[in-house]
Design goal:
Shape: globular
Number of strands: 28
Structural class: alpha/beta
Largest sheet: 5 strands, parallel
Number of domains: 3
CATH architecture of the largest domain: 3-Layer(aba) Sandwich
Number of helices: 20
């Protein structure tokens, strides 16, 4: 592993890691951690936090990573549900959270931290540094030199390896239990699929509590032996990405959206000649780039033009994004907009989609090279079977399925049936090429009721992803199930729209003020009507065109319960919280006052209020796309 500290990349060899794991395991055993108990790990990707998880597994204990940006109150349920007595955390921020809730978590007895800055004068019982734990472990290892090997030898493939709490979009989080066999089997199958070797370089910057990050930077790291690089901080990820130049890359769609937004902002500030060249080259790239990536026939003239574009635009752009060395890049977690997906493949990045979930140990379907399409998520990999229920729900059988939900047999029975099929909750189908196509979450796919599109399919996530392709739209929440028309809440991207406003000498006093500018509404209206025109070419989804919209007065935030920690929209809570706005959209109002309680980063509570404008968008008649 490599970790960037004070601007310098520090290396941890496999040998050094082995010694670190050995000492941590002996130290945890000395502190009383026993086989089957849970060890909570909270922090960014750090070598000593990864080593702590390995150390717990060596003892037969179960690491439980939690999201480092969670508020303390959000950690109470998993800590108590998993009966956690031991925790390893990154720094003072995480220590403070756990100390704040310690009274609500009576079993939490021992707490170790990796980064000592700011903690010198803390004298809480049971609180110590990882350095002290290592020293205790070294002493135990010296006293009992065969202890570590004996504990490792007791482990079995089917033992519980880790537990991951779901994001809790519809209720309390559930602890997903995985064995060593499920995690490693799927990691190995996916590694074979993409011919991964120990020569790969990966940047680990997503939360370790997310199964996606664990799949790529922990399970596959152990299977393949490649190099995992840990950035200095979330703020330096873009710089670190360029320095590392990963060959294997993984990120959810929101990261790719953010990278594209930064490119578009820079191009807005570029000179006229540069902008003209960029637009011409990108038009060519979108036309021939994806075919070129898939190994399809491209004319000699177009190949020459693309290579000239690569010298002038695509190559420098890949280098600027830090993706110039990428051999395989994946996106997952939620659907990616087809336009966004095509953009990256057009400029020569082998971006592919995969399908999986926490319950399936990430890897279910992957897209093979030379058979990549924006509207599918790939083919089932080794060991995976897929079938559709009568209602169109995707069912999965795989060696990577969860053992169950912790202390929740009812929820386990709801998703794992008696014949071993896992019910994903996603609606989709296998297309003629054998690839899986996801329509939406089964519970979110609805129908328009009444109006000219009565009975038409309503797929909110599909529409939201199309909206988020535009750099000025950061988030969108679309409503319309069992209604006669579709309406939307929009979050603007304050950086992109702020840059746009400054270039037009449009003054504003923060997000709320900027969001309600008539010029900004016109900008968003243009984006929405382009999406509507595109939807009109799909007879199945023409009814999902947006008739009315408003721009929210605040950014949707996980701390306010509007997003999950992986930034998925919590549609139900948002509809409930902003019911007055939803009613105003459907009652034909032109404005609506709203006041909303918010929680600031420093923990203070406050409120944001505004009178929001409600605008209409043009609805286009359904016109099937020409063959």
């Amino acid at each position: 592993m490599r970790e960037k500290e004070f601007g310098i990349w520090q290396t941890t060899t496999w040998g050094a890691l082995s010694q670190l794991v050995r000492q941590l395991a002996c130290g945890l055993a000395e502190a009383g951690l026993q086989r089957g108990q849970h060890l909570v790990v909270i922090g960014e990707n750090r070598p000593r936090l990864y080593a702590s998880m390995l150390a717990a597994q060596a003892l037969g204990a179960v690491p439980v990573p939690l999201y480092q940006d969670s508020a303390g109150t959000e950690m109470v349920f998993p800590l108590n549900n998993a009966e956690v007595a031991f925790a390893v955390v990154e720094d003072q921020e995480q220590v403070d959270k756990l100390l704040e809730i310690r009274g609500q978590c009576p079993l939490l007895a021992r707490l170790w931290y990796d980064e000592p800055r700011g903690l010198r004068n803390y004298a809480e019982p049971g609180l110590a540094s990882l350095q002290a734990l290592l020293a205790a472990g070294a002493a135990r290892d010296q006293r009992e030199p065969g202890y570590f090997e004996a504990e490792v030898a007791k482990g079995q493939a089917d033992d519980v390896a880790a537990m991951f709490f779901t994001s809790g979009t519809t209720g309390s989080p559930k602890g997903v239990i995985h064995s060593h066999a499920t995690l490693l089997d799927r990691a190995e199958a996916a590694a074979r699929f993409d011919k991964l070797t120990q020569a790969e370089e990966l940047l680990a910057y997503m939360p370790p509590a997310w199964i996606g990050q664990i799949g790529f930077s922990y399970a596959q790291w152990l299977v393949c032996g490649y190099v995992v690089n840990c950035p200095e901080s979330p703020a330096t990820v873009t710089i670190d990405l360029k320095e590392v130049g990963p060959t294997y890359y993984f990120a959810p769609p929101r990261v790719f959206e953010g990278l594209l937004t930064s490119v578009m902002i820079r191009m807005e500030d570029a000179g006229r000649l540069k902008k003209w060249l960029f637009d011409r080259c990108m038009a060519l790239a979108r036309r021939v780039g994806p075919d070129r990536m898939d190994g399809k026939a491209v004319s000699l003239i177009d190949r020459c033009k693309w290579h000239l574009g690569d010298l002038a635009i695509y190559g420098p752009l890949r280098n600027s994004l830090g993706l110039s060395r990428v051999r395989v890049a994946y996106t997952a977690g939620e659907a990616i907009g087809p336009d966004l997906f095509t953009f990256y493949r057009a400029i020569g990045i082998n971006l592919k989609q995969l399908y999986g979930s926490t319950e399936t140990a990430v890897f279910v379907c992957l897209q093979p090279d030379n058979a990549v399409r924006a509207d599918t998520v790939g083919v089932p990999i080794d060991g995976v079977e897929i079938k559709l229920s009568d209602s169109g729900e995707i069912l999965v059988k795989s060696p990577g399925l969860l053992k169950g939900y912790y202390k929740n047999p009812t929820a386990t029975a709801e998703v794992l049936d008696s014949t071993g099929w896992y019910h994903t909750g996603d609606a989709g189908f296998i297309d003629a090429s054998g690839q899986l196509k996801i329509i939406d979450r089964a519970k979110d796919v609805g129908r328009i009721q009444g109006g000219p599109h009565d009975g038409a399919m309503f797929a909110p996530k599909y529409v939201e992803n199309k909206l988020k392709f535009f750099p000025h739209i950061k988030e969108a929440v679309v409503f319309g199930d069992q209604r006669a028309s579709v309406c939307a809440f929009i979050n603007i991207d304050v950086e992109a729209v702020g840059n746009w406003a400054e270039r037009r000498n449009l003054p504003y006093a923060g997000y709320t003020d900027l969001a309600q500018k008539p010029e900004v509404y016109a900008l968003v209206l243009d984006c929405i009507e382009k999406v509507n025109a595109d939807l009109a070419t799909d007879t199945r989804l023409a009814g999902s065109q947006i008739g009315r919209f408003l721009i929210l007065h605040k950014e949707l935030d996980a701390d306010d319960g509007e997003l999950t920690r992986t930034r998925k929209v919590r549609r139900g809570p948002i509809a409930e919280k902003y019911a007055v706005l939803l009613d105003a959209l459907y009652q034909g109002k032109r404005t609506q006052f709203i006041e909303t309680a918010v929680r600031f980063e420093d923990g203070r509570a406050g409120s944001v209020s505004a009178t929001l404008t409600i605008a209409d968008a043009k609805i286009y008649p359904a016109m099937p796309k020409a063959a």
